[in-house]
Amino acid sequence: MEPVRVTIWNEFIHERTDPKIASVYPHGIHHTIAQGIAEYGFQIRTATLEEQDHGLSEKVLNSTDVLIWWGHLAHDQVSEEVVTRIQRRVLQGMGLIVLHSGHRSKIFQRLMGTTCDLKWREDAKRELLWVVNPAHPITQGIGEYIDLKPEEMYGEFFDIPAPEELIFISWFEGGEVFRSGCTYTRGLGKIFYFRPGHEAYPTYYHKQVLRVIANSVRWVASAHGAAPTFGNSAPFVTF
Amino acid sequence: MEPVRVTIWNEFIHERTDPKIASVYPHGIHHTIAQGIAEYGFQIRTATLEEQDHGLSEKVLNSTDVLIWWGHLAHDQVSEEVVTRIQRRVLQGMGLIVLHSGHRSKIFQRLMGTTCDLKWREDAKRELLWVVNPAHPITQGIGEYIDLKPEEMYGEFFDIPAPEELIFISWFEGGEVFRSGCTYTRGLGKIFYFRPGHEAYPTYYHKQVLRVIANSVRWVASAHGAAPTFGNSAPFVTF
Amino acid sequence: MEPVRVTIWNEFIHERTDPKIASVYPHGIHHTIAQGIAEYGFQIRTATLEEQDHGLSEKVLNSTDVLIWWGHLAHDQVSEEVVTRIQRRVLQGMGLIVLHSGHRSKIFQRLMGTTCDLKWREDAKRELLWVVNPAHPITQGIGEYIDLKPEEMYGEFFDIPAPEELIFISWFEGGEVFRSGCTYTRGLGKIFYFRPGHEAYPTYYHKQVLRVIANSVRWVASAHGAAPTFGNSAPFVTF
Amino acid sequence: MEPVRVTIWNEFIHERTDPKIASVYPHGIHHTIAQGIAEYGFQIRTATLEEQDHGLSEKVLNSTDVLIWWGHLAHDQVSEEVVTRIQRRVLQGMGLIVLHSGHRSKIFQRLMGTTCDLKWREDAKRELLWVVNPAHPITQGIGEYIDLKPEEMYGEFFDIPAPEELIFISWFEGGEVFRSGCTYTRGLGKIFYFRPGHEAYPTYYHKQVLRVIANSVRWVASAHGAAPTFGNSAPFVTF
Q1: Buried b (16+ CB within 10 A) or exposed e, D3-22
Q2: Is residue A130 part of a domain?
Q3: Which InterPro entries does this entry report, sorted A to Z (chains A, B, C, D) (predicted)?
Q4: Which of A46, B184, C144, C160 is deepest in the core (most CB within 10 A)?
Q5: d(CA C230, CA C91)
Q6: Count of CB contacts below 8 A, A vs C?
Q7: Nearest-by-Cβ selection for B137 from C128, C165, C223
């Protein structure tokens, strides 16, 4: 079996402008994730905002099976053309994994049809992610929960369409809950939203978080059927 | 419009055998709920375990639009025949609301196909029920959350089929989360599971809890289509 | 109870430019639907493409509980601004009913995140719409199926997100099937897509088709909960 | 990776009592399916009604990853004890594939909570199974539809809970439609219902039908998470 071709996209701003963030992710969140899932045998590339086409040319996307997305400060700087290109590729079957503050990215809003807004608080307290769908391949090897501290809080109502499958629900020390692992299908493409990790905390070094990301790469990259045909059709059956 | 005909079923054991529980619900949980939703204009009856047929004869069920169920100690004492009768009526369109420890009732297990098991702890701490589907009629008038203290903890994994609609998620002080408001359809019947309230706490006097119960009575009693026909059929179309 | 305020939007081009269509809908599809559901007690207005703001000013939308949408030839002529305005109102709780060729409207694509494309054929043959969710209020009074002839064919794959509730499946004489009645939730808004009727056929005079439209008006207009709040939040619970 | 351990269960009555059926499946439907999916690399066993424990002892089930079920005449002869044993194994993570008339088997009814009844007609006409979820691994290699003739008709309403994922919809020459490929999750177990094939027709020699069965074996056998724990729990978080 061919290795899954993963492109990890990161805005890559915090890590170059804020020394506190740089101390956590000196080479960028994309780099840390790439190293963290290296052991799973994927073929990994990275791409960032400032590259031409944000590093997401037709050529790159056409050879990408799974796109991982992290963004926060600069959602508005992502060009509509690239967003449209990504959307088209998802509908054709490319998997998409949206992480944390990517919930407000243009591509996630475009695919959801909603604001994807939520409550938040940077209080560096505890998050517990409980598995609520232990039958799902994304939960393999995770146990009953993931225990993270410190993490930022994200709270409901999370303005998304009801997930097709709800995998994780987060508990936050300050009293909130959140639908933290959500799957969707759009066209031939599978999508996974995963809530952790804030740029200021070492979440993407956490073994279970990395395991969820690796599991979800496999899941969004899993086989699909034939590309459908559209338009004016001859009668299928004649009597 | 005819008033919705509601039958509130209660095991009615705790309230007669445990003075502590009797002090909270002196006439039984069924009685408190009946009074609590009286203002909503339903036509309300009650039924209990020790009555003949547990108070749920064919005649009673056939004139019931919505059955509310509270049980805990004596799930095994409910006769298979009555469970089968209730199941048949749900499939024919009777609404069913299962409260709290009713999660382990025979009728809920029968309709779900799973154990409906969960984690629990009687620690009398705080529960926050967050609305995660504010578009749903069951959430009308509730606000963004319900704040209960004291309540018993119920924790995931809750062994149910994924709800068709997830309405509430609970946060518990001890670290757990729970899918606390879940809808299902079986045949023509609509089902709502609602997690609160423990027999030792005055949960069924709480205005918002009662509002959810009243809203869900209306929702599970809402209109449905024609009873389907089954079996050997003549060709519908001939060429 | 206040009557539901319905705005029926129609592109209104075919009926003015094509004598064949004009003979079926002399005053426009919007007018026929308005008359056809008049008996259900809604407060009905209409709006068309060529009016200022396509007849959908802020003022009109803010006093609309349910928007019904029929379009075909001129999806591209609907302004982005009006589409954004409608989307915002849906997320705030306005119901939306999209009919037939409205599947390719900007507003439906915007809310779905997909192309909403499909197969089609104008062969004026028979369509049978089977009820596959008889528990749903939208099916009240419909029986087990709706029998239409002539109708245009729409065939799978229909490029939409999996419906939250699938209500009707169509059978077409030429061999195709179609998910013909689909519900969605976006924000506080409920959405119903209903497949019939082609502009050249008298579908919107059909009693059962009108009944489905009326039922769905009530359903998408049904109560919802409180508008959620978003953004930076104070801790809810402090220990 | 270990091969998936598949047990194909067949009632095995028609093939021994009816020469017409015997001429189609001389060694039984189970044997034909076993041969038909041999090329996919599974480790396959068969079991039949008349064996002790119907061939489904604890030992057999505990070493089964996926159980395939075909039954028709003798649903009532399957012992409650064995049904309970299968249900327990599904909840623990064993995959289950229910074929055709298995819709009325005790195990399927037990897991669904409904009658699983439907319309039917043995008219040996054409069935077209349209893919309505081309993103799903079960549709890999199938194309846009499967074309079967002759097949028995199954028609809606099919009294099942709404499938978690709807994969195929059938068109029948006589005018009916049917939800022919449906997935469910119960506990850790994944379930797939697949409508074809009638015992009198050579459906289980059809390459695409066998491909769907093989794809679904892989899908219901896919990884899952940890077995949940239930019962009285210590506080997870203390303040």
Answers
A1: ebbbbbbbbbbbbeeeeebe
A2: no
A3: Class_I_gatase-like, ThuA-like, Trehalose_catabolism_ThuA_prok
A4: B184
A5: 14
A6: 110
A7: C223
B129, B196 contact by CB (below 8 A):
yes
Pairing outcome for strands A119-131 and B5-10: unpaired
**Among C135, C185, C225, beta carbon nearest to B188:** C135
Confidence of residue A80 (pLDDT cuts 50, 70, 90): very high
Residue A185 sits in a domain whose CATH number is 3.40.50.880
- Taking CB atoms and an 8 Å limit, are A169 and B177 in contact across chains? yes
- Which H/E stretch holds residue A128? strand A119-131
Structural domain contains residue C74: yes
| Disruptive mutation site among D127, D153, D171 for chain C (greatest number of C CBs within 10 Å) | D171
Residue A167, min C-alpha distance to chain D (Å): 11
Band of residue D236 on the pLDDT scale cut at 50, 70, 90: confident
Tens of pLDDT, residues B1-12: 799 999 999 999
Identify whether C127 is part of a domain. no
Beta-carbon separation of D228 and B174 below 8 A: no
Q: DSSP 3-state helix, strand, coil percentages of chain A (rounded to 5)?
A: 30, 30, 40
Instruction: Give CA–CA dist C227/A206, Å, rounded.
Output: 36
* Cα distance between residue B172 and residue D237, in whole Å: 10
Say which residue the tokens 């029998």 belong to. C147
Q: Which residues pair with A168 in a beta bridge?
A: A131, A181
DSSP for residue C113:
S
CB contact under 8 A, B190 and C141: no
Nearest CA in chain C to A113: C111
Q: Do D223 and A126 touch (CB under 8 A)?
A: no
Between positions 18 and 47 of C, the ones with CB within 8 A of A are none
Find out whether the peptide bond into D157 is cis, omega within 30 degrees of 0.
Answer: yes
Secondary structure (3-state) at C60: helix
Domain that holds residue C205: 5-114+180-220
pLDDT of amino acid B239: 67
Q: What is the pLDDT of residues D58-91, one digit of tens each?
A: 999 999 999 999 999 999 999 999 999 999 999 9
pTM, entire model: 0.98
Segments of chain B with pLDDT less than 50: none
Residues of D in contact with C171 (CB under 8 A): 171-172, 175-177
Number of domains in chain B: 1
**Shortest CA distance from A235: residue in chain C:** C174
